[in-house]
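User: Fold this, then the next.

Assistant: Folding the first:
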Amino acid sequence: MARREIDMLHGPMVANIIRFAMPIALATIVQQLFHSIDMAVIGMCEGQNELAAVGSNTSLVNLIVSLFTGLSSGANVVIAQLLGAGKEKMAKKAAHTSLYISVISGILVMVLGVYLSPKLLIMMDTPPEIIDLSTQYLRIYFLGMPFLMIYNFTASILRSKGETTRPFYCLVAGGIVNAILNLIFVLGFDMSVAGVAIATSISNLVSCILVLIVLYKTKGPLKLSLPDLKFDKFIAFKIIKMGLPMGIQSCLFPISNIVVQSSVNSLGAAMVAGNAAGAAIETYSWALNGGFSQAMVSFVSQNYGAKNIERCKKAIRETLITGLILSSLFNLVMYIFIDPLIGIFTTDPALADIAKFRLIAMYLSFPTGLLMDNIASALRGFGHTVSPTVVSVLGICVFRILWLKTVFIKIKTYWAILIVYPISWILVTIGVIILTVKAVKKLENKELGM
C-alpha cells in the first residue's frame, strides 16, 4: 500500500481517521472558498444587489450538487466494501462505471439547470430587484456542472481506497485559479456577477482535469484505464441503489434550506445579504463535519466488507469522539475572530449584525449536527441507506417546512427561522441513533448464528 493511502483495516484508528478526514475537510474549505471569494469580490467591488444575487443561489446550487454528491458517495461505499472483501476485479469495474455515471449526471444537471434557472428562482421568492442577476449567475454556474460532477465521483473513487490528499491538492489548484480569475474578470474587465460565475466554472474544470490525471497515475485496481472504461449495468444499478437514497438524504438539507431561504427572502434584500454572508462563513465549520462523515462511511464500509464488526464499532466510537473535539475547537476559534471574518464580506453594520446573529446561533448548535451526520454515515457504511433517509425526510424536510409555514408565518422574525435548525437536528439524531444500535445488534447476532 502506498504511503499516501490509509490502511482502514489494520492498526491504530484515531491517527488514521484524522489523516483521512483532514484533507477532505480542507477540500471542503477550498470549495467554500470558491463561493466566499465570489461573494467577497462582489461585496467589496459591486453592491448589495450583486452580493444578494450570488448569495441567494447558494441553497439551490447545494440542492443539485448534494443529490449527485450523494450518488458519488454510493460509489464510495460500493467500492470500499468490494476492496474490504478483496474483490479487486469488481472494484475496478465499479470505479470505471462510476465515471460513466458522473459524465451522464453532469450533463443532465447542466441542461436542466440552464433551462430551469429563472423558474426555480421565482419559486424561491427571489426579490425582483435581484432576479436577473441571480439568473445570470446560476446559468453560468450550471454550465460548469459536468466538471464538478466528474471531480466528485473521481474523488470518491480515490477515497474508497484511503486516498484523500491528492484530490485536495487538485482543489487547491482550482481555488488558486478561481481567485486569480475573479480579480481579472471583476476588477479588470468589470464583468460583475457573470465574471465570478465564469471564474468558478473554469476552476472546476481545472480541478476535474487534475483529479483525472491522479486516477490515471494511481496504482492498483482503481487505476484509470481507457480499455477498462466500460459501463457495467449490474454495478451501475448497485451504485444507484446505494447512492440514490444517500443523494436524496443529502438533498433534504438544501431542499429545506430553499424553504428557509424563501422565508429569509420574504424579510427583504438586506436580510438576504446579511444571511448570505453569515452562511458563507458558517460553511467552514461544516468542513470538519464533512471530513469525519466521509471517514466514518469509508472506515465502516471497508471493515464491514471485511466482516470485522468489532472494528466497525470502534470506527464509529472513535470518529464521533475525535470529530466532536476537533469541531468544537475549530468553532471556538471561528467565534473569536467572528467580527473580522464578517468584515471580509460586508462593511455595512446592519448586514454585519444579521450575519453575527446567525453565526452565534449556529455555533451553539453544531455538536448536534455533527452527531446526526456522522451516525447517519455509519449506517450508510453498513449498507443501510433507506431508513436514515426516511428519518431525515421526517425530521429535516417535513418538520422544517411545517415550522416555517406555521410558527414563522405568525412570528415573522429572523430568530424564528434559525431555531428550526437545532430542533430538527436533535429529532434526526435520536432517530439515527436508534437505527444504528439496531443495525449493529443485528450484525452481532448474525455473527453468533442467532
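Now the next one, as you asked:
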Amino acid sequence: MVRGWFAFKKKSAGLFLAAVILILGSHLFCLDAKVPQFGRDPRILNESIRKAVRSYHRLGIDFTKNLIDYKPFESYLHFENTPSFSKPNFPDDQGIPLVKYGAHLYYNPVTVSQYALYLFGKYRLGQASIHQFVRVVDKLISLQAADGAFRFTFAWHYYLTGREFKPGWVSGMAQGQALSVFARAYALTRDRRYWDAGNKALGFLLTPVTAGGVMDTLADLNPAWRQYITFEQYPVKPASYTLNGFMFALLGCYDWWQLEPAAGEGSCKMALVAFAAGIKTLNKILKYYDVGGFASYDLGYIIYQAKPNLDPFYFSVDIYLLHALHSITGDETLAKYESLWASYVGTK
C-alpha cells in the first residue's frame, strides 16, 4: 500500500512538470472555501432511490466481485472476470471488440482499453498469452491521435445538454484507461512505443477543456474552487462531473506514476502531481454525489437542475473504485463513502 504521497516536494522538476504545476495552481496548499449548500427535492428522491436499490438487487449487480486492493501491474479491478469479454458480440478479425452505435460498428477506445485489461488479467492467471494482450495494446495505439487523444469516431447524444457530441469528441475516462493499459504494457515488455504512447495520453489528459482537452476544475460547482482539478468523462460546459470516469482517470495517473515512483521530474512525477491533486478534489466533492440512500452518477442534478441519475450499475462501479483508491492512499474519506454506499444496498 502506498502512503504519504501528499508530502511530495514542491520544487519544479523540469519545464514539463512546472507547466503542469502551474495548471494545477495552488491546489495542494489552499484553504477550503465555504462549502455551498444545495437543496434536494424529496419528491424526486424518495421513490427514485427505492427504485434504484430494487433494480440493483433485481439485476444481480454485485460490486464485491470487483473489489481489490489495487496494485498497478497486477489484475485491473478483476476485469478478467468480465463475462462480455469472453465472447465479444462484434469482434473484428483479431477478436478485438467493436461496439454498435446506430447501424454501424466502431472501435470505442474505452472498450478496447478494457478488453486489453481483461487480457492482462487473464495473462497473469496463465489463461492468455502475452501476444494476445500486446495485439490489443497495438490496436489501441492505432486509435491514438498525434496529440495523444483518443477521439471517438461516432456521435453521442449527451443527456444533460440535449446536444450531440460530434465525431472526434474526447473523454478523460478514455485517456485514463489507456494510461493503465500502456503502463502495464511497458512494465511487461519495456517497449518504448508504449512509453511514448503513455506520455502522449497523459499530456492530453492534462490539457484543459478550454484548450480542447479533458481537464477541468470545480469552478462550475463553486467559483471559489477553480484550483481543484477534475478529469471530465464528458467535457461539457458547465461541467457535469461524472464520478466513475474521474476515478478511472485517477487510476491511470497512479499506474503511470508507479512506473518510476521515485522520479523527481518527467511524466511519472507529473502523474503523481495530478493523482494527488485529483484525490484532493475527490475528498472535496464526494458528499455531493450522496443523495441519502444512493449516489448520483454525476452532479447534473446540481449543475443542470436535472433529476439525480441513479444508475445501479455505475453505483456499483463507484463503490469498487473507491475501494481501489482507498487501498492505494489510505484516505479515510474514500473509505467512509465506500462503506456508506455499500450499506445502501445491504453490504458493509
